[in-house]
Amino acid sequence: MPPTMKEKILDAAEKRVRGAGFSAMSFRDLAGDVGIKSASVHYHFPTKPDLGEALVDRYTSQFKEQLDQIDTSDLQTALNSYVALYSQALVLDESICLCAIMGAEAIGLPKNVNQKTKTFFKMNRTWLLELLQRKGVQNPDDTSCLIVAALEGGMIVASPSNDRAIFDQIAKAAIQSVTKI
Amino acid sequence: MPPTMKEKILDAAEKRVRGAGFSAMSFRDLAGDVGIKSASVHYHFPTKPDLGEALVDRYTSQFKEQLDQIDTSDLQTALNSYVALYSQALVLDESICLCAIMGAEAIGLPKNVNQKTKTFFKMNRTWLLELLQRKGVQNPDDTSCLIVAALEGGMIVASPSNDRAIFDQIAKAAIQSVTKI
DNA sequence: TTGCGACTATCTATCAGTTGATAGGCAATC
DNA sequence: GATTGCCTATCAACTGATAGATAGTCGCAA
């Protein structure tokens, strides 16, 4: 089935937020992107906080689906697949992780959006924690925290330089730390 | 000597950007903060990119000054002092590191601002690298990258939850990884 | 000493463009 | 005939930026 207008709006919003941030995205931008008027965007998402909440919610669900498809039989392979998801999210000069920017802007964002962003990070940490515990890794709690922070931070450090190598190096270092903390 | 108007504007701008982001900050906000009119802010900083550049530049200089005051005779003490600088920058519900948000917004920001943000991260990595090399730590290059990313990312992960414990845990894990990568 | 020009730092007033949001109409569908 | 999904039209507020006026300060020459 073809995407609904609601989905098309969310697609456009995700692209814009991941590119320039939540506060830099407007209803008129989105309307232009999907070929309707801004008043019609308000029909689907009454307010900007509503839109933001739906956006992070959908992003989290989609990310979770991808996590669930990762083959976790081998630890190193699983971690590499996990990093690959973040690596995919980082398209230099185009986009970073949605929740990296939502987290960075958090102080100025509505509470409902922050709640959803919090859930995204929590979900990531939980997934990693379970994996590391199952594999008998030492300090799984600290390590899962570190990996999520390093990957999100890696995008932010790499983005102004537009240098993918920095992100890759950080990701590599984060994975190496697993077996050694 | 009392702060100049230029400095007062930068102070106000830093507070606002670290709270809500660069694109969410306006010349009128700043004018109100320091008690002049927005046209007068333009006198000191002709355009918004000019202001952004000066802002990151000053932030980097001030951070560098603090780095240079750290006692580096003992590795653990030095790392703890380094983390303390970031910890200071993270005032939950109020502000995160200026360059965390500038890095997150990078794609939509003017080039001159990104250049300065890049310099901030580079300066951090260089300082850490020299410290780790001097102390004979293994893989100093990877490790310095990881620490910067983890701390910046730690703020972003902690901010939506408004939970300082998450940042502290990440910082601890990052420091622990030094002796073990 | 006086006076003049340049400079600094602010002001008022204004601009065109954008913002999130609402009211109300209109056609298609169920 | 109610609901859905869009539309036009409009709103007050805000945005970055500019033009031009004004008052104060400083250095220097008559």
From TrEMBL, chains A, B:
Gene3D superfamilies from the UniProt entry: Tetracycline Repressor, domain 2
Q: What's in the keyword line of the UniProt record?
A: DNA-binding, Transcription, Transcription regulation
Which InterPro entries is this protein grouped with?
Homeodomain-like_sf (IPR009057), HTH_TetR (IPR001647), Tet_transcr_reg_TetR-rel_C_sf (IPR036271)
Q: Which residues bind DNA?
A: 26-45
Q: Which residues form the HTH tetR-type domain?
A: 3-63
UniProt entry tagged with the keyword ATP-binding: no
Quote the Pfam families the UniProt record gives. Answer: TetR_N
Q: Which GO terms describe its molecular function?
A: DNA binding
Quote the SUPFAM superfamilies the UniProt record gives: Homeodomain-like (SSF46689), Tetracyclin repressor-like, C-terminal domain (SSF48498)
- What name is this protein filed under? Transcriptional regulator, TetR family
Upper lineage: Bacteria, Pseudomonadati, Pseudomonadota, Alphaproteobacteria, Rhodobacterales
